[in-house]
Amino acid sequence: MDIFSAIILGIIEGLTEFLPVSSTGHMILGAHLLGLSHEGNDTLKCFEVAIQLGSILAVAAMFFKRLIAEPSLIAKLIIGFVPTGLIGLLLYKHIKELFSPSVVAYALIIGGVVFIAVELLMRRKNPEKISFEAGSHDEIATISYKQAFIIGLAQCLAMIPGTSRSGSTIVAGLLCGLSRTGAAAFSFLLALPTMFAATFYDVFKNRELFISNADNIYLFLLGAAVAFVVALFVLRAFLSFISKFSYISFGVYRIIIGAVFLLFVL
Description:
Blueprint: H1 3-16, H2 23-33, H3 42-50, H4 52-69, H5 71-90, H6 92-97, H7 101-125, H8 136-142, H9 145-155, H10 165-175, H11 180-205, H12 207-212, H13 217-242, H14 248-265
Helix pairs in contact: 1-2, 1-13, 2-7, 3-13, 4-11, 4-13, 5-9, 5-11, 7-10, 7-14, 8-11, 9-10, 10-11, 11-13
C-alpha cells in the first residue's frame, strides 16, 4: 500500500459504495489492477474496513437534519437493520469465506439481470409510481415499518460479495412500491446502522491487525477522507440521475463488469 493506491481505492469506494454495482467487487478488481493481493496483505484488509467510515459519514452529513427531525425514521432504520445484524452476527465466519473473485463475478451478473427484469416489470405494472419522480424525501416519511423490515430482509442478500447492499435494498424498495428515488434514498439511510455496525465489528474482530498496522494510519485516514468527498458527490448525483433515467443502465453495467471479472481476474 502507498499513497497513490490509497487515493485510487478511496475514489473507488466513494464511487461505488452507494451505487447498485457492488463496492466489494470493484475494490477487489481495483486492488488487482493496482497489483495488490488480498492474500496475506493485512494492511489492505484493514484499509478496506477503515475507508468505509468515510462513505458512512457522507450519508450522515447529507441526511443529518432529516434524521434529527424524524425519530420515526430512525425507528424504521433500526427495524430494517435487525435482520442483517442478527444474520451477520451469526454467520460472520461463513460470510468471510465467500469473499472470492468468482463469487463476486457471478453475483454481479445475476444481480444485473435481476435489476433489468425488475425495472421492466415495475414499468409495465405501475408506470405512474415508478416514473421519474424526485419526491424521495416526502416519500421516505410514508414508508411503513413493514416495508422497512422487508427491505432489511433483502439487505441480507448483500452478505454474498458482489450482490451489492444498495442493489438488493433498492430492488426490494421498488418491489415494495417505492419510486426510484424513494428506494435509493431509503437505501442510503439504511446504510448508516448497517455499515456502522459492520465496520466497527470488523475493527473489533481484527483489532490485532489494526494495532500491528498503526504505522499506516495516515493511509487509512487519507483513503477515508477521499471516500467521504467522492461519496458525498455521488449521493447527490445518483439521486439526480435516477430522477431522470432508469436502473437498467446499472443492470447492464453489472453484467459487463461481471464479465470483466471472469475474463481478466479469473
